[in-house]
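Supplementary Text 2. Reproducibility record for the structural model of the 130-residue chain.

All settings were left at their defaults, and a single model was retained for analysis rather than an ensemble. We include the record here because the model underlies the residue-level annotations in Supplementary Table 4.
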Amino acid sequence: MLARMMEGVTAAIVAWIFVCLYFPQMIRNRAQFYAGVMMIVGAMLLAALAMIIGGSFVGFAGAMGQILQTIAFVLMIAATGNVSVKDLGKEFGNVIEVMRRGETEKEIIIPRKDRMGGETDDIPPPPGRA
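Retained model, structure tokens:
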């Protein structure tokens, strides 16, 4: 059942591969791109072998195919985003840390008077409070 749902993921990644082959300037790291292509080919071969062999191999092939698709997806992001897998992992780690603990500093869009050190000449007072 789950293997059938993952066929859409394979189709989307294969479509992205064809888009990247049509627009090669999108690929910034060819080694990562071709590694991702090989992961998808491996996932498709495992799916074909699972249909041929059947039995308990179906579960193994489904799990390995999903792992290969996940790796291919990450490699496609890295290949077109011009970032190494190590840097991408660090960014994901930072995102997880921010989500877990929250931002350490609050973003100040409009500074308050007490943080600016008194009145400023360039900010006029609101109407009726002069």
